[in-house]
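Training component of the fellowship. As part of building independent skills, the fellow (R.M.) carried out the full modelling exercise for a liganded target. The chosen ligand was LLP. The inputs are recorded below so that the supervisory panel can assess the work.
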Amino acid sequence: MSPVAAPKQSAPDQPASGHQRVPASKHFVSHEGVLHADSVPLDEIAEHVGTPTYVYSAAAIDEAYRGIDAALSDVPHMVAYAVKANSNLAILSRLARAGAGADIVSGGELARALKAGFSPAKIVFSGVGKTDAEIRAALEANIRSLHVESAPEIDAIEAVAAELGVQAKIALRVNPNVDAATHPYIATGLHNSKFGLELDVARKLLPRIIASKHLHLEGVACHIGSMVLSPEPIGDAVAITAAFACECAAAGAKITTLDAGGGWPILYGNEERDAQSRAIFGRAIIDSMRRGGADKLGAQLIVEPGRSIVGDSGVLLTRVVYVKEQSKKRFVIVDAAMTELIRPALYRAYHAIVPVATKAGAPETPADVVGPVCESGDFFAHDRNLPEVARGDLLAIRGAGAYGAVMGSTYNSRPFAAEVLVDGAGFEVIRVRQTTEDLWRNERNGS
Ligand code: LLP
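Fellow's submitted model of the complex:
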């Protein structure tokens, strides 16, 4: 449970030599030589919608949500989907209908969550830099709770609540100083990170919060990072958070929530070890909540999974524009770029890349899969073993359902990609491809 040294780098961005490692999926399977999303052939989607296009499986999303919900069924709980992972309204409304809550991080996400039909009573709001306007919107909507991440934020929330004549429901997001052993850019649980309140600071704030007539401290929260492969660090963080929740209760707060954050992993294919199952993460969190004594408070457990609900559910469908043979390398140049999926450029993240037209046993040789953007960082894979592909072939970039479309940009004046949701044998465009006119819609043409 003690703090550990600086976070380690994540697993290598590419597998060792041999065949490319592709994670197993029930929803992206090849039938008669064509990769399908559930019952829909991906080449059919490309024909109708063009490329690059994000394709999500509704069944995969439903299944992941239900799996996490089931893993916590032993205790009163709520699965608050982390909207930032994929905030398409069609996906949000599907999860809202399934009974999920929402974890949001901005006024924009609040508006989306409300628009998609999440009950305000199921919305929690994290984030280190909430503005007065965002706090006001959250209080006016009467959301479940604002997760406070600093002392001045308490003053700001109290002032806005006083102005509105309401009592703000808040939870303290603590930083338990636990190493999530993930990529440093997505680790949030150590004291060198901007997130959460150090326990000593949170402790000192308690009397002032409890005495305030405009603040109602209803919970304690933590989130130590994303893509946390083993449940131990999350369990350690939850135990610390739970013990602090008991301190808050002893100091006079009526604690009704213990929020364990998100961070549950998926497998992209390059992990050095298997991620544990959802059931094991659920069990570890429940046990740690008990270890910290919070079960005696009768508090509801909240989790905030994002990646583990939508990550496996999506692929980025792209077409090969050229294959360029250089003396030392084969470049597969595709029509998707870092503008659609920035994770490889930003974190050297590994995404398996598979041809849509599959040939069993085809020999694989190394290639760099790159986009057309004018940046050397615009790549999806380096020296990846891939079968032979030709101009016009379709590729599916796997594990793209989380932190894909939402992190897109229009750099190089590239319109946002289309998004498609496959539901059984049918599919629906859930975001129309942006047009070039859309790109400059809000600009003033000086000429
Ligand atoms: N709760 C809070 C307070 C968070 O900050 C996050 C993610 C989550 C929940 C959801 O975490 P998840 O279950 O998805 O691991 N763009 C990065 C990931 C950034 C995660 C930010 N916070 C990536 O592409 O890997």
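The panel noted the following from the submitted structure. Residues 1-15 have pLDDT under 50 and may be disordered. The domain at 87-305 is CATH 3.20.20.10 (TIM Barrel).
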